[in-house]
Amino acid sequence: MLRTQSGLRVLGAQDLPEVLDLLAADPVRNVFVDYRARLTRLEPRWLGGEIWGWFRDGRLASVCHAAANLVPAMADEEALDAFAGRARKRGRTCSTIVGPRDQVEVLWDRLSSHWGPARELRWQQPHLEISGSSDVEADPLVRRSEASDIETLYPACVAMYTEEVGVSPEWDGGRDLYRARVAQLVSRGWSFARYEEGRVVFKAEIACSTPHACQVQGVYVAPDRRGEGLATRGMAAVVELARREIAPVVSLYVNGHNTAARTAYDRAGFRQTETFATVMF
User: Fold this and answer.
1) What is the pLDDT of residues 31-47, one digit of tens each?
2) N or C terminus of the chain with fewer C-beta within 10 Å?
3) Do domains 7-117 and 130-275 have the same CATH topology?
């Protein structure tokens, strides 16, 4: 097969081994793109978009996930220029640009005059990892959610999303789609929560996973139970369960201004390895 010597092209199933080899150079920070590549096998109908590859001297050097989220991986400025150029021509189809801050900054610099204004810019999002046991005792009441928990779990998921994103996931007819996403995470065994008296007081989900790592999302403590250490001990439980049954390294990224969450993650044993950024539309 004729291979691109240098430049950008849309990747397909035949490129999957090369994509996975590239992402394996930094498998924790690249976990989202790695997960999506494995899940969809780079088939556009499953991606709901495309994955672009930047080639240099006939070898894949960078990739960019371009679907509901625009996510660069292993991209230098030359690759980011090419990705931004294709994104401008294609038009905005994503709800966020997210990834390592240095890469997101370049993309947004190239795209802001075409895709702006953004609804929100989050430039300080520490990326955290833990690859060993937590520093605190795990909460024994945190468990995997089950199908029978969804009626109780769903309101907490809506509350977390609305508080974090600033818009309800049910806005503009999104309820069925978001509820299906919650049910999907439960069915995969990726939802963890502490249930008390018919409600959720702590929860977290695994957003994506590969053989190398998984990424946590949706961490939430009921407002009237904050300050009790539920997040610290709850995250210790999530780390214990995830590392034993899902992936050896647990990661997440958090808003820099969220000092309560950052304190909880630090106490649970997470350590910063990168700074991420998110552009939200």
Assistant:
1) 999 999 999 999 989 99
2) N
3) yes
